[in-house]
# Entry
Amino acid sequence: MTDTAADLLRIEDLHARPTPEEGADPGADILKGLDLVVRRGEVHAIMGPNGSGKSTLANTLLGNPAYEVTSGRILYDGDDVTEWPTDVRAKSGMFLAFQYPQEIQGVSVIQFLRQALSARKGIDLSVLELRLATMDWMKRLGMDSSFVDRYLNEGFSGGEKKRNEIMQMAILEPELAILDETDSGLDIDALRVVATGIREIRKDRSQLGILLITHYQRLLDELQPDFVHIMVAGRIVASGGMELAERLERDGYEAFRGAD
# Structure
């Protein structure tokens, strides 16, 4: 019998598609029977070509209403969260770092973090207390101390947006972090800073589970995930270790397309 006590995330035969507009015909499923288990403390990387369903998976896991589950289920920490709204999933400890973080005018980074931390943990820190708590992480991630007073993502460079997402992950202390192409648009120096931040968070929180969605092996080289999965046409078609990423680098996705 399989021991599921350490399972943090269990995805079973998941099918999902964009939510159709009222009166419109539903489109085809993008996720087509996806299965995956992430245990506490593990780092899983998902790689796949454009259109394979990677970002659909990330959004579906966090309950983005733009996507709907047509069959299958999502279990988080033993609970069936398939129908849970996004805010409830976030409060329970699920975190999504966006591929394209949104700008929010008029809301500073420090205000956003204060509201998010209050919702996540019920901790009502003052702005000064939270500022002190963020200072160490800003240093680790190469951010100027004035960063938290800027409006969220407004005028941020690509690297600043991604480092801000990692700082949010550090402050909010989720149980499961889903990083949707965190390395997208980063130069090698910015990528190393982000990877260092992720490693530092894992040192403090060894039970954190991470689902890392990426196109590129360079982030995997920095983080050395426990498992690598290849996703093609809405399914995971191969799983293994870093040797799988190396094979992908050598042979490309064509070597895996027949497996779906």
